[in-house]
Write a structure and sequence with these properties.
CATH architecture of the largest domain: Orthogonal Bundle
Order of helices and strands: HHHHHHHHHHEEHH
Radius of gyration: 24 Å
Distance between the termini: 54 Å
Strand order of the largest sheet: 1-2
Number of strands: 2
Number of helices: 12
Shape: elongated
Mean pLDDT: 79
């Protein structure tokens, strides 16, 4: 969010925008649509603390009761999107709210029994299991990094799933059958995660392990499209 503004700077910025009718109208529209203070501030290019003070002056305040801030249709959307397997970030974006606001509302819905927690229970992966999969401590650290670093990772795509996937692929790239590595930085043979259907999430069924370079070349292509381009490349070079 940038460097926090001091009290004097906030006062100056607030004075500058307080009489801006267009900005006030835009903020009012976004506020009434249910967007969070942080999202609105980013949208209109104002420091969140400044915006919060302006909203107070303009009478744009949420009700004291937290539950009143959420509409029935928003709760229905949360329930439906979770059933579809959407991630928390995706649901928050669909709601037009911050992830923190969504997470808080989710707790309320769980307490009411309207939403069930479908996450898999955490299980301990033994040293014997790692050895059987051919995973050393360097590769294990890489797998952990991939799981938290890949965008749109599904909550149910656990580290155990990744260990089992690595074992099933025998530590080889899904596309080239080259042994996967876990070296530092970006290297062509380093392990990476790829979605078979690029429009979907990183789920156990939609994800494979492959070389970073192959993943980069594939991009948003389907496997059939990748094969077509590779064939044309080979044929074109004789």
């Amino acid at each position: 969010m940038g460097t926090p503004l001091g009290g004097d700077m906030i006062t100056k910025q607030r004075s500058k925008i307080a009489d801006d009718a267009k900005l006030r109208a835009k903020v009012t529209k976004l506020f009434n649509a249910g967007y969070s203070n942080a999202v609105i501030a980013a949208e209109v290019g104002v420091n969140p603390k400044t915006l919060q003070r302006c909203r107070a002056e303009w009478g744009l305040q949420h009700p004291v009761t937290t539950g009143a801030r959420w509409r029935d249709e928003e709760d229905d959307l949360i329930i439906r999107l979770r059933k579809e397997g959407k991630t928390g970030q995706e649901i928050a974006a669909a709601l037009g709210r911050s992830y923190g606001a969504y997470a808080s509302r989710l707790k309320v819905l769980k307490a009411k029994g309207l939403v069930l927690d479908k996450r898999k229970p955490v299980s301990v992966i033994t040293t014997a299991e790692l050895e059987a999969a051919g995973i050393d401590h360097v590769m294990l650290a890489k797998l952990k990094s991939l799981r938290v670093g890949s965008g749109r990772i599904d909550r149910n795509f656990s580290l155990r799933d990744m260990v089992e996937m690595y074992k099933a692929q025998k530590g080889l790239c899904y596309y080239t059958q080259i042994p996967l590595e876990a070296g530092p930085g970006f290297k062509g043979k380093n392990i990476s995660l790829d979605r078979l259907d690029s429009s979907g999430n990183y789920t156990r069924e939609n994800t494979v392990m492959c070389c970073s370079e192959v993943n980069r070349m594939k991009g948003q292509l389907t496997l059939e499209e990748l094969d077509w381009w590779v064939d044309k490349l080979v044929m074109g070079r004789g």
